[in-house]
Amino acid sequence: xxxxxxxxxxxxxxxxxxxxxxxxxxxxxxxxxxxxxxxxxxxxxxxxxxxxxxxxxxxxxxxxxxxxxxxxxxxxxxxxxxxxxxxxxxxxxxxxxxxxxxxxxxxxxxxxxxxxxxxxxxxxxxxxxxxxxxxxxxxxxxxxxxxxxxxxxxxxxxxxxxxxxxxxxxxxxxxxxxxxxxxxxxxxxxxxxxxxxxxxxxxxxxxxxxxxxxxxxxxxxxxxxxxxxxxxxxxxxxxxxxxxxxxxxxxxxxxxxxxxxxxxxxxxxxxxxxxxxx
Length: 278
Prior knowledge:
Distance between the termini: 102 Å
Shape: elongated
Oligomer: single chain
Order of helices and strands: HHHHHHEEEEEEEEHH
Structural class: alpha+beta
């Protein structure tokens, strides 16, 4: 066999090797446990049809029907495909996204060690799980809710869906921003969902069954980082500050009186009379 012929057959041979050795790398234990397009992508991967696998994963990411479990399988599938194709940068990007949504992900023993090492490296560059918070601003006739995403180092979040319901009203929703019309001091229930590829929930703040609450026009309470000691033996810091101030004043008055007495005593030599230090 000529060198050219051998090289021309190498991709096929390599593909067969990857297809045999990576069947257990793929996340889905049962295809029907995942979205059909995610399962399809893993099936293509196991057959070493890498381009088709990436296309299936992209189609899944374009839907609005993925669960968080689907998303984890999709990100892992992408990382494995990129590893098999020798695309380290793309693999690292997928693993960074995986680390930000599932930092405690457990890999099977058959996953290539290089992938596990790359995932651990990605963990060092993340700042914890992706999170979401809601900023409130009192406006005329209600409150303005604005979403803020945190720790999304892999640019995984596509948007934040905010849901709110004034007391006695129906649920309203908005994307990244929502105006809630309600009278002052009335209670409002709310929750938020940061969604990623395929509409999968990446982070949540409250739920429809267990929402958070606030009162219109009333700022959230801010508590000190450490609880104050309220025992009888404790003394409030302000009291210590007052005692310190009084003590300082007494010391100052004492110094002034001493200096005044010394100036009146003629037997005490002046600074000029003492001359310079030896």
